[in-house]
Every structure is written in structure tokens, then in C-alpha cells.
Backbone:
């Protein structure tokens, strides 16, 4: 009997592990403070693997802050304090080395930030080279091309790989940043309002790219635009004043929001 | 009341004239210095010719000779001081920029500010005490060490500022790639800040190339021997000027004018490129 109980217990453990495994990112009672300012208030969120997960909400609701907690970038700012847990594929990121976390969970920022003093090639190659992820120049060349193709930028930069990255347009720079992240082969990519500084055509390209990316990895995108969330995401979470108001499949939430706040936000009466 | 506009226009003109007068009186001494150095120095350089740059000092009362040893000395001292001072200074600047809120970081920043304004003659005294007296002789090493100490705060502060001026998005971008702090700083941020850091380095070099006080008790001076070894006294143009002007011989005063012109030209040769390159610094 004892044995049987033990078996059941381990089976349960395995099951629990599996359900956890299916989540790319999971937050447990996540609280974030900037000094005395309580920014994120007890958020529990589970983000499934290989989907596009949008976090939407009005400006200042804490979306970007929460996103920065997922790859431990928030810790660069000494005045922040994080309580609760964030798990990446079941593993607490606070028990991992921040460098390991950031290689698994890549990030694309609101302002395109390719390193302006480096060439297009070097921008993509940098992470690979400095993290010693490639054997030789040949392999590096191959991955750089692969990443630039993934980011739908190869055709535009093929002939000027060694020109400075700062010469590209804003939209191209943002796709270069995506290539830079993709080259590291992360399992999750965080995107912090990646199109808020781009024109509609560049925005469309990035959104199509996001759709392609989810075949292989998980994309968590922060946006203040419900329209964008509706266009690109499979799941969506609505964050308001640091609290998670509602989370669910995008279709459900847009067609049939359960919370009044969500409805007001989606219909443009608030936000 | 009808005249109020006229009165105001008059006041405006008076005000502008006042500013113009003040500006001229500020800039005038500088031009006066440059003019008198040129006016007195150019004839000396023409008279002395190439020999003035390569030769050794003439005897008192007899011709010009040259200031070769002082030029060689200034070169040696500046290079040596750079070798000693620049690596430490750049690393100090990086530390201050990377750990701005730590106790040591804040202390470093404050100390650098104090060091920048520190009377340089005290640096000379300090080095005399720890190097010259134990060694029993003035030396190139002692002079260079003094200059390195004078140079460091400038370079460190410029490095610190240059790194702090890098927009946060580049720091975050580098960290987000999973780079270690060491690599973020040395492989990404230094490159972004290179213009600011180079400016600091050149300002530091220009500053010490013209320094006299830290050399008084350390370098010793040399007028007839170009270079006798790092542990032997060495000349320097500013030091030579200081020494020559104190002499009662008119030919020495002439040489001092010539040396001053050369010093000014060397200073401008370092400083003008800095000013020009500063214009293109943008992030």
C-alpha cells in the first residue's frame, strides 16, 4: 500500500511537472516594487509554449516592467524589488544564472537598439561570438544569414552586411534586433512594444514575422494597442494598474470579455 | 510714454554693447598671450632654424643653440605618463560609471573631482618624497609619475561621463543578449563611448604636455643631454622655459620665447583635433 501510494505520488509529480513543462513562462504571485512604488500586484500568469502571448494595457500599467522581470533585466535597476517567482519551462529564473535566463529568453525593445558603431553583420554575430556559441567563421556566417532570413531582412542587407547598422531605417533596425535575438536561438522572445516607433508598413512586416516565429518559439509581446493584440496574439492578458484583470484566448476575450474593465478598454472607453 | 519704445531699444543696444565689451575683455588677454608669443617666438625660430629643434642649449650669452633635450624630454615624459596613467584612469572611469551607487564608486567620483582641482605642485612634492628622495636623483620616471597622477582624473572623469551618456537602451540590449557585465562593458559600451574616452585621453595628454609644477621637483631638467636613461633627469619644454626666464642672459630669454611658441604649437596640435572631432560626437 505504501508502495502504491508512493507510485501515485511520483505519478502526480510527473504530471505536475508535465503541466508545468507546457508553460514557457509562469509567474507565481509576482510583485514588483520600484522603491516604495508597488508596480506589479500579485500577478499569476501561465504562458503556453509556441504561442504569441500579448500583454496589453494602458500606458503605465506595468506591462514593460513585468516583461523585464521575465529575463531578469529589471535587476539592472537597483531600486527594484521582486517578490514571488517567475518560472521558465518550470525552472525558477531566480535560481538560474541571469546570463542563462537571458539566453533562453531573448528580448526586443521598444526603441530599435542595434549597436550603431557595429556593422549589420557584427550586430547579429555579437551574441554568438561573445557567448562562444559558434566554432568558426563559416558556421558564424551561416547562422548570421539564417537569422537575417528569419527576420525577413536578408534580401535587403545581403549586399551591405558590413555597413554600419545605423544606416538602416527604423523598421529595418528593429528587424535587425529581431535577427540578433533569433541568432541566439532562444526559446522565448519578449517584445516590448516593438512597433510603437515604426510606420504602418514596417509594423506589418514585424507582425508577420511574429506569426512566423511562433512556429518555433514563444513570443510574449507587450502592446498598448488592443488592435495589435487582436492581430498577432493567440492569448492575451489585460493588465490594469499593475493587476491582472483578465487573461484568456484572444478570440474569447475580444468577442466576449468577462470583466467590465476589459470591455471598456477594448471598446476604447478607457486607456 | 511715447518714447518708451525708443528707450527700450536704446537699453537693448546698451546691453548688447556691454556684453560685447565684457566678451572682448575676456578674450583679449588670450589673444594677447598668443600674439606676444608668436611675435617674440617666430623670429627666434627663424633665426635658430632646424637647429633650434634638434640642438642643445647654447652657453650663456652666446647664441641660441637648440632645445632638443627639452623636446625629447617632453615626448618621453608624456609617453611614459600615458603608459602609467591611461590604463588605470580608464579602468577607474569604467568603475565609477558601472557602480555609481556603490560606496567605492561614489568615493571614486568625489576623489576624481578633487584630484582634478588639486594643486599640481603638491603632486610634485609627493612624488619627490616617494620616488626622488629614495632614488637619490631626479628622473624621467619620477617626472612621468607626477604627470600620470595629474592626467588620471581628467581621463577617468571623461571616461565616466562618456559611459554614462550612452542611452540605457544599448546597455539593456547588450545585457539582454546574455553577455556578462565584463563583455557588455568592454565589447559594447567602450566602443560606443570611444569618442568621449578618446577626447578625455587627448585632453589629459595635452594637459600634462604643458605642465610645469609637477616636474619642478621630479624631472630635474636637462639641457645638454637628450636622454640618459629612465632613472636620470630629463628635460621638458615648460620646465626649460621656467628655468631660462630666471637667468639674466638675454639669449636665454630669446630661447624661452622660441620654446614657448613650440609649446603652444604642440598644445594646439593636440587640442584642435579634439575640438574638431567633438563636433561629430553624437549618439
Residues:
Amino acid at each position: 500500500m505504501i508502495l502504491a501510494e508512493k507510485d501515485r505520488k511520483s505519478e502526480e509529480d510527473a504530471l505536475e511537472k508535465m503541466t508545468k513543462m507546457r508553460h514557457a513562462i509562469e509567474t507565481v504571485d509576482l510583485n514588483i516594487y520600484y522603491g516604495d512604488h508597488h508596480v506589479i500586484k500579485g500577478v499569476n500568469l501561465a504562458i503556453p509554449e509556441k504561442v504569441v502571448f500579448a500583454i496589453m494595457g494602458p500606458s503605465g500599467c506595468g506591462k514593460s516592467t513585468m516583461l523585464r522581470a521575465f529575463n531578469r533585466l529589471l535587476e539592472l535597476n537597483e531600486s527594484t524589488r521582486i517578490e514571488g517567482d517567475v518560472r521558465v519551462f518550470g525552472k525558477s529564473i531566480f535560481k538560474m544564472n541571469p546570463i542563462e535566463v537571458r539566453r533562453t529568453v531573448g528580448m526586443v525593445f521598444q526603441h530599435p537598439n542595434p549597436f550603431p558603431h557595429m556593422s549589420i553583420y557584427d550586430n547579429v554575430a555579437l551574441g554568438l561570438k561573445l557567448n562562444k556559441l559558434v566554432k568558426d567563421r563559416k558556421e558564424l556566417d551561416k547562422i548570421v544569414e539564417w537569422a537575417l532570413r528569419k527576420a525577413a531582412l536578408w534580401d535587403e542587407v545581403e549586399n551591405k552586411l558590413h555597413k554600419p547598422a545605423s544606416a538602416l531605417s527604423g523598421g529595418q533596425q528593429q528587424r535587425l534586433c529581431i535577427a540578433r535575438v533569433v541568432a541566439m536561438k532562444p526559446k522565448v522572445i519578449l517584445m516590448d512594444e516593438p512597433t510603437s516607433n515604426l510606420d504602418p508598413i514596417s509594423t506589418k512586416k514585424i507582425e508577420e514575422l511574429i506569426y512566423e516565429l511562433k512556429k518555433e518559439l514563444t513570443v510574449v509581446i507587450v502592446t498598448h494597442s488592443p488592435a495589435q493584440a487582436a492581430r498577432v496574439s493567440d492569448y492575451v492578458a489585460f493588465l490594469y494598474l499593475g493587476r491582472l484583470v483578465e487573461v484568456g484566448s484572444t478570440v474569447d476575450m475580444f468577442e466576449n470579455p468577462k470583466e467590465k474593465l476589459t470591455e471598456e478598454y477594448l471598446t476604447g472607453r478607457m486607456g | 510714454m511715447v518714447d518708451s519704445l525708443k528707450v527700450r531699444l536704446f537699453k537693448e543696444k546698451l546691453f548688447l554693447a556691454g556684453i560685447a565689451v565684457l566678451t572682448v575683455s575676456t578674450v583679449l588677454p588670450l589673444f594677447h598671450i598668443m600674439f606676444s608669443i608668436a611675435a617674440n617666438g617666430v623670429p627666434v625660430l627663424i633665426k635658430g632654424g632646424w637647429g633650434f629643434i634638434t640642438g642643445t642649449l647654447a652657453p650663456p650669452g652666446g647664441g641660441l643653440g637648440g632645445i632638443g633635450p627639452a623636446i625629447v624630454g617632453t615626448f618621453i615624459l608624456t609617453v611614459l605618463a600615458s603608459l602609467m596613467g591611461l590604463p588605470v584612469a580608464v579602468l577607474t572611469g569604467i568603475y565609477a560609471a558601472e557602480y555609481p551607487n556603490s560606496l567605492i564608486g561614489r568615493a571614486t567620483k568625489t576623489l576624481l573631482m578633487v584630484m582634478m582641482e588639486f594643486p599640481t605642485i603638491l603632486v610634485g612634492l609627493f612624488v619627490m618624497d616617494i620616488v626622488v628622495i629614495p632614488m637619490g636623483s631626479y628622473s624621467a620616471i619620477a617626472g612621468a609619475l607626477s604627470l600620470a597622477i595629474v592626467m588620471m582624473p581628467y581621463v577617468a572623469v571623461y571616461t565616466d561621463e562618456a559611459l554614462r551618456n550612452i542611452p540605457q537602451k544599448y546597455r539593456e540590449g547588450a545585457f539582454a543578449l546574455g553577455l556578462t557585465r565584463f563583455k557588455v562593458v568592454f565589447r559594447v559600451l567602450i566602443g560606443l563611448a570611444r569618442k568621449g574616452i578618446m577626447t578625455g585621453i587627448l585632453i589629459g595628454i595635452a594637459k600634462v604636455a604643458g605642465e610645469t609644477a609637477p616636474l619642478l621637483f621630479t624631472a630635474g631638467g636637462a639641457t645638454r643631454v637628450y636622454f640618459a636613461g629612465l632613472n636620470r633627469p630629463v628635460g621638458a619644454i615648460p620646465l626649460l622655459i621656467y628655468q631660462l626666464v630666471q637667468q639674466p642672459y638675454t639669449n636665454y630669454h630669446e630661447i624661452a620665447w622660441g620654446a614657448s611658441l613650440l609649446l603652444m604649437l604642440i598644445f594646439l596640435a593636440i587640442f584642435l583635433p579634439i575640438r574638431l572631432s567633438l563636433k561629430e560626437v553624437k549618439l
Remarks:
- Chain B is about 75% helix and 0% strand.
- The mean pLDDT of chain B is 91.
